Amino acid sequence: MTFLVLNVFSQGISFEKATLEEAFEIAKKENKLVFIDCYTSWCAPCKGLALDVFPQEKVGTVFNEKFISLKKDMESEEGKKIAEKYDIHSYPTLLWLDAEGVIQHRYIGFLIAEELIAAANLALDIENNWVGLSRRYEAGERDLDFVQKYIVAANEFGKAHKEAIDDYLIRKSPEDLINETDFRIIRRNVKSISHPVFKHMLKNKEKYFEVIDELYVDRFFGRVAIYELWDFKNNNDPVGLKAKMEELVSIDEDFGNRMIDYYEVTLHEGKPTHHIAYLDYKLKHFYNNSRRLTLCVYQFVDKEEDKVEYPTDVVEKLRVMCDRVLEIDKQWGSYELYAKYLDATGQDEEARILAKKNLKMIPEDKLKTSSSWWILNRDNKE
Fold this sequence. Notes:
The protein has helices at residues 20-30, 44-53, 57-66, 77-85, 113-124, 130-138, 144-157, 162-171, 180-189, 196-203, 205-211, 214-234, 238-251, 253-266, 274-285, 290-301, 312-328, 332-344, 348-359, 371-381; strands spanning 4-5, 16-17, 33-39, 67-73, 93-97, 103-108. The longest helix has 21 residues, at 214-234. Helix 3 packs parallel to helix 5, helix 6 crosses helix 7 (144-157) and helix 7 crosses helix 9. The protein is an alpha+beta fold.
C-alpha cells in the first residue's frame, strides 16, 4: 500500500494523505505515535498553526522523526467521526495517539513552535504525558507539585478534575498560590466570590499584581463577580442578588462598588444607552489609568472598517478619554491613539495633522505598522 505525503519538499511537518486507520498501520510498523491536527476551515488559530508553525524546519525535524502526522478537517465525514470518538469540540485540538488509537496526549489551542515541540516531547514521555499523569494520580500520588502538573494537563486535555482541583486548593497555602501556574488553575476553576481562594486573592491583590499582569487578574475578578451577579438576576432572585453585592463590598469596598456599577452598565446591553453607560463607567473608575482608557478607546475605533459611526455624545466621550490619556502620558502611543480615534470618527484633517506630528516620535521599527503612517499613506496604498 502506498501513501502520498503532503509538503514533501517542505522543511516543516510532512502530513500523510492517509486515513486514520491507515496511519495506525504505519505507526505499528514504525513504532511511532500518530499526531493529528484537528482543525476547521473557519478557525483562525488553526490557520495560524498551518501557515506559521507547522512549516518551520525545527518543528518538522521533531515531528517527521517521531510521529505519523495527519491533518483532519473536523467538518469532513472522517473528521466528524474522529471528533465524536475523541470528544473534540474546540479547535485546534492536537492529538497524539498510540497505534491502538488510545490518546497519549492532547492540547487545545494555538502554540508557537517551541511550545509545540515541548508538547510533542511531552507526548512521548510515558510518565508525564496525559496517560502517565492519569495513571500516577489514580495510583494515589498526591504530592502538591505533581497534582499541580496533573491539573494543568487535565485543563489542557479539556478534562477539568474537580476533586483534584478542590483538594489542591485546600491543601496548598494561600500564599503559595501566588504564581502564574496556580493563577491559571484558579482562573479556570474558581467561579464564585464566596470561594476562599477568591477572597484571599482579592484581599491580597497587590501581591498578585507583582507576579501577574494586573489587567489579567482584574479581569478575572470582574468575570467571576459579574457572572455570579447575573446568575441571581437570571434566576429572578433579588434578595440573593442584594446579598451577593453586599458580600462583594465586604470583601473589598472599592472593587465591590465598581462591580455593582458595572452590573448596572450590563443592564443597558442592547439599548441605545449602552455605549454611554459603559464609557461613563470607564471614566469614573479608570480616569487615572491610561492603559485601561486606551484599551477602551480602541474597543470603539479599532475596527475592520476605516470609519465608524457613533452618536455625537459617544464620539465626545471618546475624545475626553483621548485627552486624559495624553495628559497622563505624553508619549507616541498616546498620540497614536488620538490620531486613530480622529481618523476612525471622520475627523480627517485633525487626524492627519496629529499623525504627521506623531511620525517624528514613533520608533523606526514600528513606523510602517503604525496608524499614523497608515493615515498619511493610505491614499498611496489604495
